[in-house]
Each structure stands twice: as structure tokens, then as C-alpha cells.
Design brief:
Belongs to the protease inhibitor I35 (TIMP) family. It is found in: Secreted. With 201 residues, the protein is mainly β. It contains 3 helices and 13 strands; from the N terminus they run E-E-H-E-E-E-E-E-E-E-H-E-E-H-E-E.
Length: 201
């Protein structure tokens, strides 16, 4: 997923905050998120926020219609809004032309509020492979973990690695990772080790 940089001046100092995300997998996004839903975007507005670290900043407040909840606490079951920032959090900018289209949305929750950025899965539902849809709908198991090459350090038997040419290869070669990303999941094999396996579609 692409990272973007946004310059921002705070307290007379100019700095650039960049977002770089490791290669993501639908199963990894599912397991690492507090919320996983299928939803439609309905509208958007802006809201002002403040933090001691960044001062005043604006968030895009998206109104959504939740169609199906795959993962989420009770207070998130009827979620009506999600938030994103285009200032320095590598936010998602959803065009009004894509409103009323179905999206897979994953993200973290803080006190019942869900903020999404480019490191979260936010993709049109129709662009997912059949294996990814089956995984999100129940095939994915979080007993095994997925990591990129630069993340895999310990407990190799509990992880499946996404291929990459180097520890700094955040955007892997699609020929190496296409099958893993689109059609496979990380699951325990008969020997009790985590390996790449096809999703039964």
C-alpha cells in the first residue's frame, strides 16, 4: 500500500510526516483490526481535532452504511461514521463518485471511534478475489501470523512470510506475492506449522 508525505508546520517548525506500510494481506488486516465490515460510503464532512503532538488538525468524517460485520465489538456493530485524515496520517480520500459502492473496511478502534489510513484495508468489495472474500467471511484463522520479510524475526513456525527481495522491500514483486496475497491464507498444516495454503472456495 502506498505511503504519502504531508508537510505540516507546528510551533514555527516545518516537518514532514510520512506513512510507509509493509506489504499487507487481507488475513493480516483482518487479524490486526478491531473492526472488519462491508459497508457503503454515504457522505462526508470535516471535523477539527486537537492533540498535544500535532496541534489542531482536521479529519474527514465519513458517514457509512454498515452492510455486514465480520469482526467487531458490540458497540461497533451499528457503526455510522469512520474517520480519516489527509493532513499527515496517510488518510483515505474517497471520491463521491464511489459513494454507494460496497467496500471492505478494516481498522483500529479507540473508545468506539474508528480511524482508517493507508495501512488499513479499505478496498472496493468487488476487487477482492473469491479467496479473500471467503477468508474475510470466516475462513481466516488468527492462530498463525503473517509478516513481511523485514518483520519476521522470531518463532518462524508461527508465521508465514510474504516474499520480498530485501528487508526494505515494502512493495513486493507482484509475481512473487500475487498468489499469496490473493488466493492463499496462513494456517496450521498437519505438522502443526504455519504454512501458506489455498483458501477453499
Amino acid at each position: 500500500m502506498q505511503g504519502l508525505c504531508y508537510p505540516r508546520a507546528i510551533d514555527a517548525y516545518q516537518f514532514t510526516n510520512c506513512c510507509t506500510c509493509s506489504p499487507n494481506h487481507a488475513q493480516k488486516a483482518f487479524c490486526n483490526s478491531d473492526l472488519v465490515i462491508r459497508a457503503k460510503f454515504l457522505n462526508d464532512s470535516s471535523t477539527d481535532m486537537f492533540s498535544e503532538s500535532f496541534g489542531n488538525y482536521s479529519l474527514i468524517k465519513y458517514e457509512i452504511q454498515t452492510l455486514e460485520v465480520f469482526k467487531g465489538a458490540a458497540e461497533l456493530q451499528n457503526l455510522m461514521f469512520i474517520y480519516s485524515s489527509m493532513e499527515f496520517y496517510c488518510g483515505h480520500d474517497i471520491s463521491p463518485s464511489n459513494y454507494n459502492k460496497e467496500y471492505l473496511i478494516t481498522g483500529p478502534s479507540w473508545n468506539g471511534r474508528v480511524d482508517v489510513n493507508l495501512c488499513n484495508y479499505l478496498v472496493p468489495w468487488q476487487t477482492l478475489s473469491e479467496a479473500q472474500k471467503k477468508g474475510i467471511e470466516g475462513a481466516y484463522n488468527c492462530d498463525c501470523k503473517i509478516c513481511s520479510q523485514w518483520e519476521c524475526r522470531e518463532d518462524p513456525y508461527n508465521y508465514c512470510r510474504l516474499n520480498g527481495d530485501s528487508p526494505w522491500d515494502f512493495y513486493p514483486d507482484p509475481q512473487l506475492d500475487g498468489l499469496e496475497l490473493n488466493d492463499q491464507m496462513c494456517a496450521l498444516d498437519m505438522n502443526g506449522e504455519c504454512t501458506w495454503q489455498p483458501v477453499d472456495t
